[in-house]
């Protein structure tokens, strides 16, 4: 689904009204007919469309991140996927005030980069990572990865953030990232490695064990790369379940 198909950011338009609009043939902004709703709501919709077109033309994801309900933020993905940054971090524990970030991998425009503690994992590199992105994409990153990075490196990340854990739950995909990957058929090179193993691998690397860092990096990079596959899958499923079903009703 594209942003142009959406009316739900408009005051007075909820899920029911939006689906009725789609079912009535108003499947995007160009097809909107003011007679389909009351005059006040029609004015609100037309005002929103005028403003939203300008922000879309300016390639401004922040505006849409602010006006869409958080549960509908996945609708930004199709419009801003080209410069989306899929990222994942590894740490020595779960407490951002006590533990440290060991690696950060991000996948953007077909390229994957890993930053490593003690080498190139710096605040400047992380700031550049988010500055180059139209949209951050993670799994449980709003509650874990982003605040961990902000606390550890003194960052204030305001790039729009799509946390795939929530749209996954909407389509019935529960559990952690590895469980969700298995449910939709994403295969891993090392399915035996877990987040707990990532902590162990970092400590082995600190102790000088050959190959530990390489294995950790490979694991972290796979997390980031797989997020793109997951984003493609879950947003397609939501598009079919929400938008296409309403369109089919208009054809019946």
UniProtKB/TrEMBL annotation:
Alphabetized UniProt keyword annotations: Exonuclease, Hydrolase, Nuclease
SUPFAM superfamilies per UniProt: Ribonuclease H-like
Source organism, top-level taxon: Archaea
Coiled coil: none
A matching Pfam family: RNase_H_2
Molecular function per GO: exonuclease activity; nucleic acid binding
Occurrences of domain YprB ribonuclease H-like (ranges): 85-234
Keyword Hydrolase carried by entry: yes
InterPro entries with a match to the protein in the record: RNaseH-like_sf, RNaseH_sf, YprB_RNase_H-like_dom
Protein name: Exonuclease
Annotated source species: Halonotius roseus
């Amino acid at each position: 689904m594209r942003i142009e198909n959406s009316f739900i950011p408009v005051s007075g338009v909820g899920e029911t009204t939006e689906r009725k609009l789609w079912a009535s043939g108003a499947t995007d902004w160009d097809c909107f007919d003011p007679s389909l709703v009351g005059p006040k709501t029609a004015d609100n919709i037309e005002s929103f469309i005028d403003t939203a077109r300008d922000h879309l033309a300016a390639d401004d994801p922040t505006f849409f991140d602010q006006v869409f309900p958080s549960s509908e933020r996945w609708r930004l993905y199709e419009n801003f996927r080209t410069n989306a940054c899929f990222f994942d971090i590894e740490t020595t524990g779960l407490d951002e005030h006590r533990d440290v970030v060991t690696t950060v991998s991000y996948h953007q425009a077909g390229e994957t980069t890993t930053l490593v503690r003690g080498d190139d994992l710096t605040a400047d590199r992380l700031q550049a990572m988010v500055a180059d992105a139209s949209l951050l994409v993670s799994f449980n990153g709003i509650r874990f990865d982003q605040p961990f990075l902000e606390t550890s490196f003194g960052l204030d990340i305001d790039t729009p953030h799509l946390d795939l854990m929530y749209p996954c739950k909407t389509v019935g995909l529960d559990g952690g990232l590895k469980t969700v990957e298995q449910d939709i058929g994403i295969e891993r090179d090392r399915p035996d490695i877990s987040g707990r193993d990532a902590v162990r691998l970092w400590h082995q690397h600190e102790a000088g064990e050959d190959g530990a860092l390489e294995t950790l990096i490979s694991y972290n990079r796979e997390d980031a790369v797989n997020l793109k596959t997951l984003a493609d899958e879950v947003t397609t499923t939501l598009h079919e379940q929400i938008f296409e079903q309403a369109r089919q009703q208009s054809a019946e």
